[in-house]
Every structure is written in C-alpha cells, then in structure tokens.
Amino acid sequence: MVLAASALFLVAGYALKAQCLAGFGGREFSHLCYNDIQPLYGIRGVAQHIFPYVDGRLAGSELLNGAIEYPVLTGVFMWASGLPVGTSSSYLNLSSLLLAPFGLLTTWLLWHMTGLRVLLWAAAPAIVLYAFHNWDLLAVAAATFGFYLWWKGHPVGAAVAFGIGGALKMYPLLFLGPLALEFVWRRDLSGAARVALTGAGTWLALNLPFMAANFDGWYATYAFHRQRTANFDSIWQFGWPEWPPTRTNLVSTGLLVLSFALILTFSLLLRARRSDPYPFLQACAALLAAFLLFNKVHSPQYALWLLPFFVVLRVHAGWWIAYSLADLAVYVGVFRWFYDIVYQGLDFTWAKRLLIGGVWARAALLLALIAVFMSARTALTRPHREELSQAPSSL
C-alpha cells in the first residue's frame, strides 16, 4: 500500500515536470514545472557526453568542460543517464525513470523502521514538487539507508552509507558527527574513531580518483559555491542582499559552526546526563535544520532532505503541515515571481510577497524545529540494538 502511494506521488511529480517537455520559454515558471535536469543537460556538457570533472575547470564564475556544481557521484549519474538520449526532454524522461526507484527505496526503508508514518514522506507535497526537480533523491536514499543500518545495529555500515551520500550531496556527512558521538557517550573512543574514519574514508575513496585526475576540475565544485552569491530564496538574499559573497560566507559559516557545536554539545552533555539513549536521530535532524536555516544556498528541493525526520521522530503533525505550507509558498512564489519579472516586467507582485513570506516563515519554522527535533522521541518500531538503548553505567 505504501509503495503504491509512493509510486502515485512520484507519478504526480513527473506529471508536474512533464509540462516542460514542450519547452521552457516561460512555461517553466507559469506552469511551475521548472527543473534543473533539462537546462543542465546542455549547460554542463551532458549533451556532449563529456565525462565530468577530469577536464573541467572554473573560469571566473563559469563551470566549463565537464565541471559540475554537485559532488562526484551525482556528476557521474548525470553523465551516465545522458548517454542513451539526445534531447533535454528525453533526458528528463530517463532521469525521472532512473530516480524513481530511489524514492521507492526510501519509502521501503522508512516503512520498515516506522510503519505507516512513512506516508509523511511518501505522500508529501514535496515529493510532487521536487522528486524530479534535481538529483536529490539519490542522496536522500543513501542517508535513509544509513539510518536503516544504524537502526539494524550496523553503525559502520551506516558510516559507509553517509560517506556515499556525501559523494552525492554533501549533507549526509553531517550525520557522521552524531554517529561518532554515540560511541563517545558509551565511552568507546575506538568505536567513535572507527565510524568517523570509515565515513570520511568512504567519501575520500570515491573522490580520490577525480582529485588525482584533475584536482582543479574536482575542486571547481566547491570553489563555485564559495564565490556564488546567496540563493534567491534564502534569508540572506532578502535580509542582507547588499553583502558580498565573502561576508555572507563568513557570517553564515560562523553561524553554522556555532549552531553545530551547540547542538552536538547539548546532545552529548545534557540529554545523555538524564540516562536517555543518545539522541542520534534527534541530533542529525537538528543539525540538518540548522544547516538549512543558515546556509547561504537553500535550493527548493532541499525540503526532501528534511522529510524523513518527520517520519522517524515523533513530532506533532502540525509541524509537518506548517513546513509543507511554507515550502509550497516559497516554491509557488519564486517561480511565479520569475515569470512576472522576466516575462511581464513586474517586480513586487503577489508572487514576490508570497515568496518573502514563505522564506521567513520557513526560517522561523527551521529555528523552532531545531528545538522540536532535539526534544522529540523516536518513532522507530523497535530498538535497533539493546546495548545502544542503555546509558553507560558510569553516568
């Protein structure tokens, strides 16, 4: 049943984006079918079958000759799925077909961990909006597989999954911190080092061939993000639009480091002192909420990253509803505003007002969700391993 519901919403997501098979030319904004897959087919050399990174470079602010703004496994997936097709429309079709199983895999994993709560993922509006907006289903599936392996009592396997996820989109690497701190809480420093090094080593092993082939082409991904301005639908763009990238980088990075330190300290020193199980999932969710709040780039499809935590943690459904509505306001607002300003010459329309309201509402919700996630109980159907559910006797 849940796989059928998941498939139905994935089909709806494809139907939304398929409106753009007739071409862009304003349709991508007026019909809300914009996706990154079609334009990047030509812009990033996929149409020319250029293998990514090895000949790439960053020239000014332009990624050239196979340089891509995403980590290496996503870049290779983009390249490989472009080999059998010849147009951007067929590329969207094939990419959607290849991405859909990762959405279903995420549903299957979450169902095994939580039962029918999985519908908060499988039947979420964000699935319709973003399943085929970009390639994020790959990273979400890898991160969820890491949580599944942790739940089954295989933390080293979870570290491998998070390392693979980090080679798709960087955010799953955040979860290595709480994974290691769970061992620190148990006074097992060798275990903490083992999972941290396994996760980091997995990521490095996947990246090392590209680093060796052309370090500049590999590093272009990260240099590109360092010099880019704040995302058009971030708090930085509407709060401090005059700041140059260097200042935005400094302030946002500082806030990220501070928030991460506070969350991890709280998870280790405060929750654990009450003889609770170490709040691994709670800490991961809070870290991600802080990242989405303070990072200068908050692309629309990042909503997919957060959805699994509404499933595995027992938070009131009102938070899921509120976040979905704020996210929908941002999505509709930004693309309708693009249509207004590009094709009608209008700026401060209802769409821009909706966008601004959605951005700040989403930011307020993310700030609140840091605390909500940290105080939540897990929704897992059974303890993943008995020894990890008991506080150390010395505490």
Any descriptors?
single chain, 395 residues, mainly alpha, two-stranded antiparallel ribbon, 18 helices, 66% helix, disordered C terminus
Q: Mind explaining what this structure looks like?
A:
A two-stranded antiparallel sheet has the order 1-2. Strands 3-4 form a two-stranded antiparallel sheet. The C terminus is likely disordered. It is 66% helix and 3% strand. The chain has one domain. It contains 18 helices and four strands.
The strand order across the widest sheet is: 1-2
Share of residues in helices = 55-70%
How much of the sequence is in beta strands? under 5%
Number of strands: 4
Could you say how many structural domains there are in total? 1
Which structural class should the secondary elements be placed in? mainly alpha
Query: What is the 3D form?
Result: globular
Instruction: Summarize model confidence as the mean pLDDT.
Output: 93
> Segments where pLDDT lies below 50 for 5+ residues?
386-395
Major sheet characteristics: 2 strands, antiparallel
End-to-end C-alpha gap: 44 Å
Oligomer: single chain
**Radius of gyration using CA atoms only:** 21 Å
Number of helices: 18
Which sequence of SSEs, written as H and E, runs from N to C? HHHEEHHHHHHHHHHHHHEHHE
